[in-house]
Amino acid sequence: MTTSTSSAARQRPEFLVALGLAAGPVVALGFTRFAYALLLPAMREKLHWSYAAAGGMNTANALGYIIGAATAAWWSRRFGARAAFGWGMALSALTLLASSVTGDFTVLTVLRFIGGLSTAVTFVVGSALASRVHTGGRQARSAAMVAMYMAGVGIGVVLSGIAVPAALTAWGPAGWRAGWLLMGLLAVLAVLPAAWAARHVPAQAAGSGSSGKGAGLKSLTPVFVWYVLFGAGYVSYMTFVIALLHGQGMKVWGTAAFFIALGVASAAATLLVWGRAIGRLRGGAAPALVSAVVLVGVLPVLLWHGTVAAIVSAVVFGGSFMAGPTAVTVLARRMLPAHAWTSGIALLTVAFSVGQAVGPLISGLLSDSAGGIAKGLWLSVILLAVSAAVALVQRERAVEHRHQEAPSPATATAPATAPAAPGTAER
Fold first, then answer.
1. d(CA 15, CA 122)
2. How far is CA 370 from the centre of its chain?
3. CB 42 within 8 A of CB 175
């Protein structure tokens, strides 16, 4: 007997649905995006890349990410949110597997571009799906579900922080292939719980417009600016901190411990701290607080050397950097009509992506000058400080959300990873 998607969702604990969706950022960000920093030194050594070539890989990934974020709402409308999320994850898994079988620079560059695009689509659409897990009026509960989704990033960082160093230890520099392969296999397995969870997300509220473009987005102008600055500041640290630690004498398993500590802190704090805090804060208070704490997390490795400073930095930074996307997703949910959540989050992610593309470039130029990598990382501190000030300008204007309770039977029974026909209720 056919039942509605919303009814199926109510029969399962919301936290299980959010946890299943969290497999998306495990693959999209933990594996496809962030793990490259761990593999890069070995790939550069084995494939004889210059620093410019190695940086070009990240440029291709960032370009794909921007395009993916800009088109995520279109993919969601064209194929349905569940299908876009599932196929995005599947494509990310394939790029991880394919990266293990070639050393050709051009092919790897194309794979990094495709991985960036699929990552953005998965993350943006998944964020919108996570926003719909809790259909009640409790803001703190809704924020907790989004936080559980975002915790997938930290889980992915931990898993890659174990898999990649293990592969490099077993096979040396040639282990970079095994690192990609291990993450690819884990990604294939992760598609299953993600697909199950996406199928049980309540249907999207009916809206007056098909795309939601411009629906309340002007009121989010300060947070758009904040997201550009925050993206540039946090990703400059993520790009160069491993190189800084290597320069300070830290070995492979030392940097692995740093990466794992960062991931554990991210997952734990996102679940236990930020979900509740963001649910209670209003306007730009949450983004401003996130920037301030991330800034504090950058300082230990700049002011002191050694393992203790590195771990303190990993815990504080790791425990706060993914609170940025959580804060933005929750704010978009509060201030935009439900039918505009995907397009709104997508445009905000484009702003985030622009910051992530520009920040490392400027930080890298500073790192090549007198003062080295530390000088480039001080840019993160400045950008994060400015972003906190900008966020405080944001004011909150709530909108009423009405959730559609009776989607069509086709929507209720459609597989999570199969394209849906235009016009289905899930969009």
1. 19
2. 33
3. yes
* Main-chain phi, psi angles of 67, to 5 degrees: -65, -40
Judge contact between 184 and 290, C-beta under 8 A.
no
* pLDDT tens, position by position, 13-31: 888 899 999 999 999 989 9
Please give the pLDDT value at position 414: 31
* Residue scoring higher pLDDT (245 or 182): 182
Q: Which two structure tokens, joined as six digits, stand for 238?
A: 């993520």
pLDDT 10s digits, 311-354: 999 999 999 988 888 888 888 878 787 777 777 878 888 888 88
Q: Extract the tokens encoding 27.
A: 């693959």
- The answer to whether 68 and 120 have CB atoms below 8 angstroms apart is yes
- Rounded CA-CA distance 311/302 in Å is 13
Tokens of 6: 């919303």
Region 157-180: mean pLDDT is 89
Query: Considering the chain, what is the average pLDDT of its residues?
Result: 81
SS3 track for the chain: CCCCHHHHHHCCCHHHHHHHHCHHHHHHHHHCCCCHHHHHHHHHHHHCCCHHHHHHHHHHHHHHHHHHHHHHHHHHHHHCHHHHHHHHHHHHHHHHHHCCCCCCHHHHHHHHHHHHHHHHHHHHHHHHHHHCCCCCCCHHHHHHHHHHHHHHHHHHHHHHHHHHHHHHHHHHHHHHHHHHHHHHHHHHHHHHHHHHHHHCCCCCCCCCCCCCCCCCHHHHHHHHHHHHHHHHHHHHHHHHHHHHHHHCCCCHHHHHHHHHHHHHHHHHHHHHHHHHHHHHCCCCHHHHHHHHHHHHHHHHHHHCCCHHHHHHHHHHHHCCCCHHHHHHHHHHHHHCCHHHHHHHHHHHHHHHHHHHHHHHHHHHHHHHCCCHHHHHHHHHHHHHHHHHHHHCCCCCCCCCCCCCCCCCHHHHHCCCCCCCCCCCCCC
pLDDT (0 to 100) of residue 276? 78
Give which of 190, 204, 196, 191 is closest to 81, Cα–Cα: 204
Q: Please, is 216 exposed, middle or buried when counting C-beta atoms within 10 Å of its C-beta (0-12, 13-18, 19+)?
A: middle
In this structure, whether the domain defined by 5-205+215-397 belongs to CATH 3.30.360.10 is answered with no
Domain ranges of the chain: 5-205+215-397
Q: Would the pTM of this model clear 0.70, i.e. be above it? A: yes
- Residue 420 phi/psi, 5-degree rounding, is -95, 155
- Least confident span in 77-81, 115-119, 350-354: 350-354
